[in-house]
Structure formats: C-alpha cells, structure tokens
Design brief:
RNA-binding, 41% helix, alpha+beta, elongated, 13 helices, 423 residues, BirA Bifunctional Protein, domain 2, three-stranded antiparallel sheet, single chain
Amino acid sequence: MLQINYLRENKAEAIERLAVKNFDASKIIDQAIELDNLRRQTQNQLDETLAEANNASREIGGFFKQGMINEANELKLKTAELKAQSRELTEKLGKIVSDLKELIIQLPNIPHPSVPSGNSDADNETILQEGKIPELGDKALPHWELASKYNIIDFDLGSKVTGAGFPFYIGKGAKLQRALINFFLDRAMEAGYTEIQPPLMVNEDSGYGTGQLPDKEGQMYHVGIDNLYMIPTAEVPITNIYRNVILKEGELPVKNVAYSQCFRREAGSYGKDVRGLNRLHQFDKVEIVQIQHPDKSYETLEVMRNHIASLIQDLELPYRILRLCGGDLSFTSALTFDFEVYSAAQKRWLEVSSVSNFENFQANRMKLRFKDKNGKTRQAHTLNGSALALPRIVAALLENNQTLEGIRIPEALVPYTGFELIN
RNA sequence: GGAGAAUUGGCAGAGUGGUCGAAUGCGGCGGUCUUGAAAACCGUUGAGGGUCACACCUCCGGGGGUUCGAAUCCCUCAUUCUCCGCCA
C-alpha cells in the first residue's frame, strides 16, 4: 500500500512512474487526495466535539463532588447533544477512512526507475545468461518420463491419493528433495540467514498483511472450519512475524530463511505448463527474506540476486536472469529479477526464482517499522526471493543430466544425496 | 473437548467509575562525576492522527455495550496459564 502523504507530495512523479506499469493512476490519486482532505477536516470536527464533551464531563464530575446536582443535570443535556454529534462524525469519518483505503489499495507499488516499460513477459530484459545448454539429441526424455523410468516420482499415485499436482517422491527422488532442501538451507545459513520453520497455515490477518487477501483469495487453499489458509509461500508467515512491529535500527537487516511446503490452487492453469513438475499444487521451496534500512535495500537486492545465482551455478544449470518489465511486475513489487533455468528436453526456460524489493509497500500495509538513530519511527523495506523452488530445479536436473547410465547428480549435491547417479 | 484464572508501556508490576496515557522498579537514551569504566546522582524514555510549532483527539489483548464520564462495569471473540480428558 502506498502512503497517502507520499501521494500528496509526489503526485506527478507517482502518476508518471505508475504509467510504466501500464496503470493510469491520476484519477484515483486525485480522488484519494480529495478524500484525505475531507478526512482531515472531519477528524478536526470530531476532535473538537470530543474535547468539548471531555471538558463537560469533567465539569459534571466537579458539580457532583460539590453536591450541585441541578447544575450537573443541566450540563448533561449538553453532553447528550455532543454525544449525538460525535457519534455522527465518527460514523462519517469511518466511512471516509475505509473509502480512502479502498482507493489507495488499488494502487500498485511504484516501479523502480530501472524497470523497463512493456506489456508482457516478452518485454522482460535479459540481463545475464550463463551456463552451457546441453545438446541431448532426439532420444532425450522429458522429466516426467525419466521420473517413471527410474521410479523416483509418481504422478499417477498422487492423482489417486489426492489429485493432480500432488506427486509422490520415492526412493532416490525423495532423497534428492531432501538433499536440495538441505543444500539450500546450508548455503543460506552460510550467508548469515537465520533458519525458521514457520506454520504452514496462517490466519486471515496474515493473509492481508502480505497481500494475498482479499484479491488472491482463490489462489489459496482455505480450511473453512478454522478459517485458516494454507500458505502459498513461506514469505507469508515469515514476513508477518513483523506485522505491527517496530524494530531498532541496530536490528537491521533482519535475514531469515525458511524451508516450507507451498500450496497453490493454480485455478485456470492447463496444458503443457502444468505437465510433470512444471506446476504443482504442493511444492517445496526455500525462501530468503530480508528487512532492510531504506537506504540499503537495493544494495541488498543485488546481494540476494548473487546468492541465488551462485546456487544455480553450483547445480551446474544453464540459467538467465530477467529484469521484469512494468507489465510483468507484480502488484506489490518495485523491482523484480526472475531466474530461469533451461530444461533441455522440454527445450524451455523454467522460472525457478523471483527476487524482489517491495520497498515500503508491504511495510506500510502491515505497519512494519524501525526506529532510526534520531529516534524517529520510519518504515522499513522488505525483500524476498526464492532460493530456490524445488520442482523445476528437479525437472532441469533430471533432463539436463540424463545419460545412458542414468542421471548424474551435480558434484555440489553429492555430499547431500549420498549418491552420484540415479539409475 | 470440559472447568477455572488471567491479558496494562521494551520487561516486571500498581491501578476496580472522574485531571490516568497510566505509580513504582528494571532496562534504554542523555548528562554530572571519572584518565576511562563501574557505582551514585539528575534528566529523559510508547504509538497514531493533527499543527509551522503548540493546542487538541484516539489507543491499557480485538470488537461491541452501559454511563455525563471506563484501564476500571457488562457482552463477545482471541490468546496465555492451571486442573481434567484425549493424544504424536
């Protein structure tokens, strides 16, 4: 959520930069500023009424103490009137505040100046491509066929027991999952992150805090009987730890890493996009989250980007980094880099990570602040990134490393798997 | 799941209808003293709205109510603790 004061003071800039996201904000901002004026005016009226009522109550107290019952009762008539007035004003103010919030909440985050304009993923800017794309020949199998050939992932069994998109990992397939999770977590801890195991379900407030609610409600599994939501990413519980929190400047940056399973309904997905491991309802992910001083958040974004890149390099996968264009940038993000690995049998790039700086957009929404050196309370910046999401990494590993003898495990992972070959 | 108790500022803990945004202690910050530190002493120390700055308003787990007036009384929800039941 953007701040109304920012909009008041930087209206032209906000409109101009939101245009990069193909968002015409001028009307909403005008309405918001007008409503905010009305809010201030109404708040003043209410405050004055309440102040008068408070004074009268104090006087009544004094009269009672002195036994001046008549005077007290007379004053009560006045307070009754003030009370009716303040009730009316409170109602009016409440309506204004909620209307105002409804307006502002429609505004996406302001994109960073480096964000290129564009409409779709076709306009994203490739800023780096690295690693050798393997030549597999015609006999190469896609990962879903390799999975059943070596009996390491069973999609049909998942469909039987739960539904499509909930695979079973078996034997070396299961061990490979565990190896990747540990590898990612260890690397994050070497980089100074604190490991956290979060709850996999969150309440409504947390859903609002990170912005899944109310808009993306349909994307989450909802446990109706207890009104809880299955998390679509560990970002939700990890970031909500800091909802309504004021940190000390010395506590920044906060660096947390969490492995969690993630649950997504993915309503409306279909076709080759969802084949095999390409898109699942339940998957594993290691997520890094940082809360940083506003002056340092972009520096931190670079560091996080390098961390993610080094993981993919160590897994010996060809990858590229994209700077998302305005049209592809998420609602809450100011700047996002996507990582894609090349899955050589499918001959496609698969997104395995997305690292973003949300600046104070999430912080404003969930009241995450810090006290700076001068004792002033300010909003912190939040950042997060996948490091990494497993299924597509597994897909690329299986496809790219297939040989006549079996599937070769990258060297960095062998200490974790305990085997060098899936055969 | 059943019964009972509790929820106050960073922490501990007073406050049961009137000037209480809240005693006191600890912690934090600033200062005096000191070569420096400790101790001692003095001052300061919650958040939001509003203002050039004041004034003023709101917040004592969340929401609602009673009252001229609520941290204090009532209702409701959440959480924590104790006992019982069940249980990895």
